[in-house]
């Protein structure tokens, strides 16, 4: 009984140390549109963006800046309008700024605030 408990405690300590040592910069960078109808995030060390639909019949886009071209932003559309659908950008320079927008026909899109990693 003691040997099993000792192994469990050692395992928890090792797992905790690994989490403490994880760099926050490697965590996904995410954004949600107003009313959370859509969301976007980065992956592959912030070099790719994904955009997901959270509410049926929603069309949305993720806008983002990359280190390779800081003067202009990129747009990743998800026009599938099906619940749970995800689109992916190509892999490129590190994403530094990200926002998610609900598409509004013939009007200004509803966008989240910019999430900035810098």
Automatic annotation (TrEMBL):
Range of residues in the leader sequence: 1-27
Alphabetical UniProt keywords: Signal
Superkingdom of origin organism: Bacteria
Protein name: Uncharacterized protein
